[in-house]
Design goal:
heterodimer, A: about 150 residues, flat, B: about 200 residues
Chain lengths: ~150, ~200
């Protein structure tokens, strides 16, 4: 694997980010907002408890879409060393990533304008798709499909 | 001569080499996010409570997150234009993290300056408006009270500047680090294949 140090550094960083995004419930707090885990994410997420999953009865430190993005990026990152097994060709990685971003904007706008109402499940799935697309678009830095 | 070749084929940069790009892009993006936040913030303050989730303040969170995530990508673009077209993946990662750190620090500084110099009651007015909006929401009163408590706690926790600074840097830095890697993929000069 190329750039292995950066790969493992980011693997642990992403793992930490996903774990901390679970919020104050893990640490026995009643709320994530105001808890130190919530403060970590307050500059990147609105953290509305009504649009977040709960862990041990406490809303997570990020909303469902952000959690999907973080978890999806981590899942995609874990998949990178396994890609040679699937003979993965990263030819359209950036196109898929752009498509995933457009899908987020479309979903957010459609909900905002009242065309449909998204749910925690739909937000986490779309966010997860974006996260996986981010990781897979970067996969050729770590795994070169020409090497197979 | 050898050193020159080393610079061209396998460039190594010091932190100071990254700072013009991280600084310029960081300043621009922190200003954009600050002004966007203020715009939506005053819209929130001047709006009637509707009970809708999509208050101006909530919309601003999504917009600001999306905008600030692009900073890492643009910092790499700036670096490849102004410093050197050659940028390795790890170097792009450092540049992205530094850019995120600059944004995290300056956003806090700008917000504090605004409150100190121009509108000392800004935070209280935002909080009052958000609480009024939550009170109009159709949900069980226990859940409503929890949301109001959380909101009040969130705003009061923002009072600690040092806490905001040190807690804001890791996540903003990591997000911009990842977008900087995408920037390296798009903008940096690819090394020539060696056979």
């Amino acid at each position: 694997m190329a750039n292995s140090k950066l790969y493992y550094f980011l693997l642990f960083a992403m793992m930490g980010m996903v774990f901390l995004s679970l919020g104050g419930g893990i640490w026995g707090a009643d709320q994530s907002i105001g808890h130190w885990t919530g403060v970590l994410f307050q500059s990147v997420c609105h953290q509305d408890p009504a649009r977040s999953f709960s862990v041990f009865g406490t809303p997570m430190a990020v909303n469902s879409r952000c959690f999907g993005i973080f978890a999806g990026t981590f899942a995609g990152w874990v998949m990178i060393p396994l890609l040679p097994m699937f003979n993965f060709k990263n030819k359209q990685g950036l196109v898929v990533l752009l498509f995933a971003v457009m899908l987020q904007i479309l979903d957010y706008s459609g909900n905002l304008l009242g065309y449909w109402e998204n749910t925690n499940l739909s937000r986490v799935l779309l966010g997860g798709f974006l996260g996986v697309a981010v990781s897979l678009s970067l996969s050729d830095f770590f795994y070169n499909d020409n090497q197979t | 001569m050898e050193e020159e070749i080393q610079t061209q084929e396998d460039p190594s940069y010091k932190i100071g080499d990254y700072m013009p790009s991280a600084g310029i892009v960081g300043v621009i993006f922190s200003l954009i996010t600050f002004v966007t936040g203020l715009f939506f913030g005053y819209q929130q303050i001047n709006s009637e409570p509707t009970g809708s989730f999509f208050s101006p303040f909530m919309i601003s969170s999504g917009v600001i997150c999306l905008i600030s995530a692009l900073a890492g990508l643009l910092a790499v673009w700036h670096f490849t234009r102004e410093v050197s077209p050659k940028l390795k993946l790890g170097q792009g990662a450092v540049l992205g993290f530094l850019t995120g750190a600059v944004i995290a620090i300056l956003s806090v500084v700008f917000s504090e300056l605004w409150v100190m110099l121009f509108d000392p009651e800004y935070t209280d007015k935002i909080l009052s408006s958000l609480i009024a909006n939550i009170e109009e929401m159709e949900m069980p009163s226990a859940q409503k009270n929890d949301m109001i408590d959380a909101m009040a706690e969130s705003v009061s926790s923002e009072q600690s500047i040092l806490r905001q600074l040190f807690m804001g840097i890791p996540v903003t830095g990591l997000i911009n680090l990842i977008t900087a890697l995408i920037g390296v993929k798009i903008f940096a000069e690819k090394p020539e294949e060696k056979f």
